[in-house]
């Protein structure tokens, strides 16, 4: 899990090790064109960019506009990187055979039509291209309460939008004396 401290992101050492292992799977060649689906605030694409030459092009795509804004703030000064706000679950707005690598970390499970996404990935991937989809998650959600409709709404929102939105929503509700039990189980 990552936490923000003084504007910097601090990651659990296990998280960093797992990410570094995933990056080690990338076949590195000159002038690669890379797409990160679900790039969030751009950390993975930034780390991948450090492995690439100056002629590589890196694209990050995310459905969350705030994440794209933050990615541009964090890493937009690198002219090799371009961050795009787009719902890639619908389509990937690039031509066929555009990418040497399509990368995605902790996202595929959030896509409703996985078959469609995989067809799109295949379409934009160059012949002999590489796909790395990874998932690791050391925390889980545990939500309980008497209001089952509210629990369903929270669970659906968590799955659709991510834990940050739920945490923000929950803490605003808890300050308003909402009655709900919400907890994370870290490292279970």
TrEMBL record:
Domain of life: Bacteria
GO molecular function: methyltransferase activity
Gene3D superfamilies per record: Vaccinia Virus protein VP39
Annotated ranges, domain Methyltransferase: 29-159
Pfam families linked to this entry: Methyltransf_31
GO biological process, one term: methylation
Keyword NAD in annotation: no
Keywords from the named record: Methyltransferase, Transferase
InterPro entries: Erg6_SMT_methyltransf, Methyltranfer_dom, SAM-dependent_MTases_sf
UniProt name for this protein: Methyltransferase domain-containing protein
Organism: Cohnella yongneupensis
